[in-house]
Amino acid sequence: MDLEAEELQFLSIPDILKESISIPKQSPKTFYLITLALIFPLSFAILAHSLFTHPILTQLEDHPSPDPDQTRHEWTLLLVFQFCYLIFLFAFSLLSTAAVVFTVASLYTGKPVSFSSTMAAIPKVFKRLFVTFLWVSLLMLVYNSVFLVLLIILIIAVDTQSTLLVFLCLVLIFVLFLFVHVYITALWHLASVVSVLEPVYGFAAMRKSYELLKGKTRVAAVLVFGYLSICGLIAVAFGSVVVHGGDKYGVFTRIVVGGFLVGVLVIVNLVGLLVQSVFYYVCKSYHHQGIDKTALHEQLGGYLGEYVPLKSSIQMENLDV
């Protein structure tokens, strides 16, 4: 990023996207390897997992086996596969976030960038992101519990034919998804960047993220909603053509469309990670919180076990005495 810290606060949404897209040009080889090693497997897994679960679900729903042992085996296989998928998704999501945020910050501070240095820093960064993710998971647990309660009330309202209650539940569910879910997602993404670039993580990173979002909540909501909408459209298209389109489309068409959609999702995920990194600097600039490039440079170097110089001449004088 060539812009000064004071100028970042004035970036509009198109400017943020433009600035984010231009970042990989500064180190194309590094971002190419990050995309190939981390973001591509993540994007492929997000779309392709339904290819494996769909046949099992179809077997369980449309052609249930009369043998209880066979049914139990199919359910076990489904649950094991889903568990492995979630672990893979969780791991590569955090790894991709750590790699992109670290690389963008290195470029911002003028620190030499390479794929090997990024991968070397990931273990320490991953621990911090993991703790932050656990706190976000607790918040999502509360959110999902409220969402589930509303769904139960909605079902009861439909059974009792209570029009007013049905309307209120639908409005609350709509508000929860459109506003609360989007806000929590924005909070999580920004807290992930904070966990990498500042000496805080977990609940402290979430609180820092909450403070940074003030005044930029609308921008964050538009960015997150746009990202989720694009991902949703890609998933719907993949499901209708590749997963469920066996009767309408040939194998070659499904392979081509599937490969194209995976490629699009890879680009969307890469841009999304770049945007959340740039948006962090935009929020810092908006709140007039100075970005000390020297301190940030040392923070990044600490992940690699590099020597961190003394920050003041007073410390040197004490050593001389």
Q: Report the average pLDDT across residues.
A: 83
Instruction: Please state the overall shape, judged from the principal axes of the Cα atoms.
Output: globular
Count of helical stretches = 11
Secondary-structure element string? HHHHHHHHHHH
Largest beta-sheet characterization: none
Instruction: Note poorly predicted spans.
Output: 307-321
Intertermini distance: 43 Å
Which percent range describes the beta-strand content?
A: under 5%
Q: What class would the helix/strand composition place it in? A: mainly alpha
Task: Count all strands and give the number.
Answer: 0
The total tally of domains equals: 1
Proportion in helices: over 70%
**Gyration radius over CA:** 23 Å
Question: What is the compact description of this entry?
Answer:
The chain has helices spanning 5-8, 13-22, 28-62, 68-109, 115-159, 163-197, 203-213, 217-243, 251-286, 293-303, 313-320.
Tell me what you see in this structure.
By secondary structure, the chain is mainly α. It has one domain. The protein has eleven helices and no strands. Helix 4 crosses helix 9. Keywords: Membrane, Transmembrane, Transmembrane helix.
Compile the SSE list and pairings:
Blueprint: H1 5-8, H2 13-22, H3 28-62, H4 68-109, H5 115-159, H6 163-197, H7 203-213, H8 217-243, H9 251-286, H10 293-303, H11 313-320
